[in-house]
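It would be a great kindness if you could assist me with a short task in structural biology. The full record is reproduced below for your convenience:
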Amino acid sequence: MIEVPYRELHPGHHVVGDLRVLRGVRSPELDNERDVVVYLPPSHATDPTRRFPVVYMHDGQNLFDAATSFAGEWAVDESMEALAAEGLEAIVVGIPNMGARRIDEYSPFRDARLGGGRADAHVRFVVDTVKPAVDASYRTRPEARATVVAGSSLGGLISLWAFFERSDVFGGAMAFSPSLLFAGGGMMEWVEGRPRRDGRLYVDVGFLEGRRRGPALNLRRAVPPYIRAVRRASRILESRVAAFRFEEDPDGRHDEQAWARRFPDAIRFVLG
């Protein structure tokens, strides 16, 4: 595994801050490999005594660089630089999805039509392969209370699942617009059976998700099933987690622009 400065690998791309790429991270758990992008906070270079919490984020190609994104950029690098000026600094690890294998890797349950069901192997990849490499390469705080897992849509689903399944590793999670209706809503039943745990969990949804776009949009019609599912899950989760926050974005759609807007407040909460 080789580390390369992001700008060296992608000259001319617009990113800010100190980004590195871990080339060709091999996954024995999934039998594939991918580059992993690491954002390092300003003090990582200036204070050799300081160690940092780490946020592991799914759909890593969408986080930092519009040129590599398949659906828009979260501007995580810009947000983290701004948060650093507030005194909140963290390492962010962007783990790209594998395209056609995304559904398979991000879903804990198998959908009869779309497939899936390999979330366990993917989480083991994050925990047993990516995390040890990051902990060995950078000044991390490796303990669970300083380790967060995050993602949106199916990435939010697997982040929520990982938070409960691997409470020994992840002390926090951010699940942006989690795909709770995937596989017939199997995640809902699973959530109901989870025991209460320590940690900090952020979940959100956009009020415009599941509604038609355009001038025909009617906000008075019945709340879409997806929003009802996230609201129901939030009520259950609030009783299962020591520190829980649920946000409903009145202007939010199911897209990177909305998640980027909500990201700073979410990370303030989970690292608070």
Observations:
- The beta strands are 2-5, 18-27, 32-40, 54-58, 91-95, 147-152, 172-176, 197-206, 241-249.
- The CA atoms of residues 174 and 267 lie 8 Å apart.
